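Researcher: Go.
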Amino acid sequence: MFTPLMKQVTDLTINTEERLKGVIDLVFEKAIDEPSFSVAYANMCHCLATLKVPMADKPGTTVNFRKLLLNRCQKEFERDKMDDAAFEKKQKELDSVSEKERLQEELEEAKDKARRRSTGNIKFIGELFKLRMLTEPIMHDCVVKLLKNHDDESLECLCRLLTTIGKDLDFEKAKPRMDQYFHQMEKIVKERKTSSRIRFMLQDVIDLRLHNWVSRRAEQGPKTIEQIHKEAKIEEQEEQRKVHQQLLELRGSVREETWNTVPVTKNSRTIDPSKIPKISKPQMDDKIQLGPARAQLNWMKGSSGGAKASDSGLILPLHSFLLQSHRKVGALWRESGLNWSDFLSEDEDLQSFISEQKLQFTQSDSSSSPSSPSKPSLPPEELHTQLENLLLVDMATDEQIFDWVEANLDESQISSSLFLRALMTAVCKAANTSCRVDTAIIQKRLPVLHKYFNADTERQLQALYALQALIVTLDQPPNLLRMFFDCLYDEDVISEDAFYRWETSKDPAEQQGKGIALKSVTAFFTWLREAEEESEDN
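Model: Structure:
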C-alpha cells in the first residue's frame, strides 16, 4: 500500500512553492484526520524531506519540504490556543441567546473536532520526531507548553505525545528534565483537579515510564495484507513445532508396534543400609532429562523409542555441543584443583602420560581440541552460506551462533573483514522484508551485533561497506539504506564516527553504488549534523 502511494506522489510535478505547500497541506490534513495511519504519513514525509523548490518571493533561494512541514506543525500546535479563546467567546455569546440548545450542540461538536485535530497533530509530530525530522529541543518545547496548561485537552495531548516519544526522550542526559515533567504530572494526579479520564491517562504514562516504556498491551494499528499473511505463517509454524515436540516426547514411550523395554526383575537380596551410611536418598524430579543441557535432547529408551520424528532440527545444537565438550571438561578439571601427577607413580613421566592419553586440553585454558589443533580457513562462499543458513534458514539462537563461530573460526578470522561483512549481510538480509526493515529482527540480533562490532569503528566501517554492497545487489530500493542506517544508529550498533568515515571514504574498492547510496541517506546525515549542533548549543 505504501510503495504505490509513494510512487504516485513522487510522479507529481512539484516544482513551485505553491505546489509544495499544497502537497504538505494534503498530507498533513490526512495525517491528523486519520491518526491510525500517522506512521505511514510520517514515513511519506521522511521520503520527501529533501525535496527543494525555488521560493516565490526570493528568486535564487530554495525552500525544502522539511522546513515547510515544520512550520505547518507549529502553526497547528499554536492554533489550539486560539481555538480555546474562540470557544470561550462563543460560550459567552451562547449564554445570551434564545436557541441555546442547538448552538450548544454546535459548540460541543466544534470542540470535539478541535480535540481530535489536536491529538492527531500531536501523534503526527511524535512520529516525525521518531523519524528524526523534528529535533529533541522542539519536542521538549511541546512538552513544556502542554504541561503549563492544566486543561484536559492539553494534558491529553501531553499523554499522547509522551506515549509516542517518551522512550526516545528518556536517556541519561535528559533524565533530569524528564524527572521534572513526571514530578509535575504526579502532582496533577494527586491534586485531583482534572477529570478522572485525564488522571487515568496521566497515571498510565507514569506507569509506562516505571516499566521502562514497555507497554502492557501492544498498540493495535491497521494491519497490512503482508502482516496478516506473516501472522498466519507464524501460527502455522507454531503448530508444526508443537506437533514436532509431541513426537519427540513420545519417543521414549512404549507402543504396540514396537518392542517393549525389557523389565528389570526385583532382586530378592536385601541391602543393609548400615553398610552404606554416606548414601542419602536424593530428591528426584521426574521432569529431569538426561543428556547435554544445551542441546536439550530426549534420548530413546532401549529399542522401544523408534524414530518417529526427523532429527534435522537437532543436528546443529548437538554438533556445536560436541565441538565444545573438550573445553568444558578441561575447564572443570582445572577448577577442581586436581593434578595428573597425583594419580601417577614416581617413575612415570607426566608429559608422556598426558601426550599418550591426549589430555593436553586439561592443562591450558587456551588449548584447542587434541584432534584438531588448528582451524582451517573457510572459503568466502562457504562462510556466507553457513551464516545465512544459521540466520535465515535455521533461525538459530544467539548462543548457537556464538558456538558455531567459536568452533569454526579463530580470533584472526573473527576480526577479518570477510567474517564481519558476511555476518552483517546475513543479519540485514534476514531483516529485509519487501524492501522494508523489520527492526524486531535487528533488535533480536543485538547481542550478536554488539559482540562483533561494538566499540570498534574499523569493524563498524566494514559493516557499512557490506550493507552498501547488499543494497546494490537488491537494485538500490528507495529509502532501504536510510531505514537500515536509522535502525543501526538507534540501537547503538554503528557509531557516528563510523557513519562519517563511510560518508567520506574514497576507497576505490568500495565505490560501486556509493553515489546513489550517499544520495539516499542525505536526510540521515543532515539530521545527524543538526542534532550534533543542537546538542552543542544546549
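Model: The longest strand covers residues 52-54.
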